[in-house]
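QA checklist item 7 of 12: single-chain prediction sanity check.
[x] sequence parsed
[x] length recorded as 228
[x] structure emitted
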Amino acid sequence: MTDRPMPAVLPPSLRARLGLVAALAALVVVVLGALYAGHSRPGRVDRWIILPTADSVRPPWRHVALALDFLGEPAGSVVLVMVIVAGCLLLRRPRAAVLVVAGAAMVVGTATLLKQLVGRTIHGADNLSYPSGHTAFFTALALVVALLATDRLELGRTAGTSLVLCAALLAGAAMGWAQVALGAHYPTDALGGWCTALAVIPATAWLVDQAADRLADRTAGAGQREPR
C-alpha cells in the first residue's frame, strides 16, 4: 500500500515554503543572538519600540497581558497543551497530537539552550532573556493548530501558507506584546522567540511525519508476512 494511514501533519504542498521560512527564521535567530550576546541593556531597536524596563500597561490591558503570560508559565502551558492534544485526538489526528507535545518540547528546549549560549539578561544577571520562551511556545502551538486547520479545511498552497503565517504572526505578536509590556523581555527577545518557533516547528513536523510513515510501513510489512 502506498496511501498514508493518516494525513501528514506537515502538508506536502507547504513543505517547500515553510522550509524556506524556517531557514530564514533560523538565520534571524542566529544574527540577533550574535548581536546581543552578553548584553544586559536594551538595544537601539528595543529603545526605539519601547523601554522594556518600565511597566507600560495599566488595567484592563495589564490583566490581558498577565493572562497571556500565564499561558506560557508551567501550569498554564501544561493545561493549554492538554487541551490541544485532546482536540487533536477527538479529530482523529494522532500525528498532530504528537507534534503538539514534541513541538512544544523542542521549542522550549531550543529557547532554553539559546538563552544559555547567548547570555543576554534583563533585570539582573540571573534573568536570561534571549529568546523569549513564552513567545516561542505560544507561537509554536499556534503553528500546530494552523497546520491542523490547513489539513482539515483542505486548503491549497497559498491559502494554507497564509493561514499558518497569519496564525504565527498573531500569536507571536500577542505574547510578545505581553512579555514586553510586563517588562519581562526586550522586543528583540520576542522577535527571537517568534523566529525560534518558525524555525523549529516545520522541522519537527517533518520528523514526526517521517517517523510515523516508517512505523506504518513496518506495520504493513509485518501484516503482509503473517500467514493467513
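[x] summary fact logged: The chain has eight helices and no strands.
[ ] second reviewer sign-off
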